[in-house]
Amino acid sequence: MKILSVAMCLILTGCASIELSQAGRSVQLYSQLPNSNVGEFIAMGDVSCDVGMNGRSASTNIIQCRNDLRNKAAQMGATHVIVQHQQLGTGGMYISTNNNHALSGCPNCITMVGTAYKN
After folding, report:
1. Is the overall model pTM greater than 0.90, yes or no?
2. What are 60-115's pLDDT values in tens digits?
3. 64/52 Cα distance (integer angstroms)
4. Cα(79)–Cα(28) distance, integer angstroms
5. Burial, 55: exposed, middle or buried (Cβ in 10 Å; 0-12, 13-18, 19+)?
6. Neighbour tally for 89: CB within 10 Å
């Protein structure tokens, strides 16, 4: 029974949608700091997300991951997130057993790493 409870918890949380919080809506996402006011930004810390293995499309998972970054940055009091690394898919391995061939991995998984800044 305990194993079933843990499995259900993992299944339910793996399928949970990451909604953008009210505070997260005020956080802007960039690939680099705006050039005009670089000196006015204070690094608040790193933020990361890892979304996938959920049966959703890659584009949906990218949106979910962006929401997660913005929500985490908002909790730190940040106004901006600079995404420094983004990887779609976990690659995979070619598996061949008993004449059955398959490519494992997670093509719809997304990982993002960034730094939260306050302006």
Report:
1. no
2. 999 999 999 999 999 999 999 999 999 998 755 555 566 665 556 788 899 999 99
3. 9
4. 6
5. exposed
6. 14
